[in-house]
Amino acid sequence: MPGDMANSARGDAGFAGILSGWIFGATLGETNRKPCMSQTFRHPEILEIARREGKVTVEGLAVHFGVTLQTIRRDLSDLAESGRLERVHGGAVLPSGTTNIGYEERRSLNSAAKTAIARACAARVPNDISLFLNIGTSTEAVAQELLHHRNLMVVTNNMNVANILVANPDCEIIVTGGHLRRADGGLVGNLAAGTIRQFKFDLAVVGCSALDKDGDLLDFDIQEVGVSQAILRQSRKTFLVADHSKFTRSAPARIASLAEIDTFYTDRPLASDLAARCADWNTEVSISRPV
C-alpha cells in the first residue's frame, strides 16, 4: 500500500510537471508577440494603418497584431464587405470612391511627412515672387514654412492658407473668392477660376487627392479640378506636394499629368516605371523623409 501511494504521488507530480511545463512553454512562446486584440479593436487600427500608409498587407498585420494570417484575411474580408477597404493581392487598400475623407482626418494623416515635404518645397521658394497656393493640407504645411519669407505676393483659394500667412507681415495675401466649401475652407467654382485668370504667377504650389500609376493628378471635386487647371495654365513654374498615401488612392476627376509639373515633392520613391516617365518628362522628383 505505501508503495502504491508513493507511485501515485510520483505519477501525479509527473503529470503536474508536464502540465506546468506545457502551460509555461505555451506562455513563453507568446512573450514576443503583441497581445491579441479582439476584432472590435483590430478593425479601427487596421483602417488607421491603411489611411496612413495607403495599403495594408496580410503578413504585416499578422505580425503587428500577433495573430494568424487567416485571422487577418477574415478581418480584411469583413472590412471590404462593409465598404471600408478594397481587397488586393496580399492585402487591402482604401476603396476607390467619389468622396474624399474628412478634413480633420486628412490634416492629421502623415503630418510628419507633410512637414518634411513642405520644408523641402519652401526652401526652393525664393523671396520677391508671386505665388499661388491651392486647397489641401499639404499646401497648408507649405504656408507654415513660408512665415519668414520676404516680399511675397500669395494668391490662394484656401482660407486656411490665408489665415496662416497673416502672421507674416512681409506677405501680401489675395483670396480668390468663389463658392466656400465649409468642410475644408476651399474656394471653388467659376468665380475662383475667373480671378486666377487675371494673374500670371511666378510659381504655383499645388496638391492633389490622388496620383494615378500613369502619373495623372486626380481629385474628387470637379469644381476644384477646373480651378486647379486654371492655376497650372497661369503659372510659369509649378511644384506638386503630395505624400506617399496618394500613390495608392484613387479619385474620379483628372487635373493634369506629372508631365506638366516642374518638381514633385514627396516622401517616398515612386514606382520604377513612373520614375522613368518623370525622367523622360523632365519632372524633378524630390524625396524628403520625415525625421
TrEMBL record:
One of its GO terms (molecular function) is DNA-binding transcription factor activity. It comes from the Bacteria. Residues 39-94 form the HTH deoR-type domain. Keywords: Repressor, Transcription, Transcription regulation. Signal peptide: none annotated. Pfam families: DeoRC, HTH_DeoR. This is Transcriptional regulator, DeoR family. The lineage of its organism: Bacteria, Pseudomonadati, Pseudomonadota, Alphaproteobacteria, Rhodobacterales.
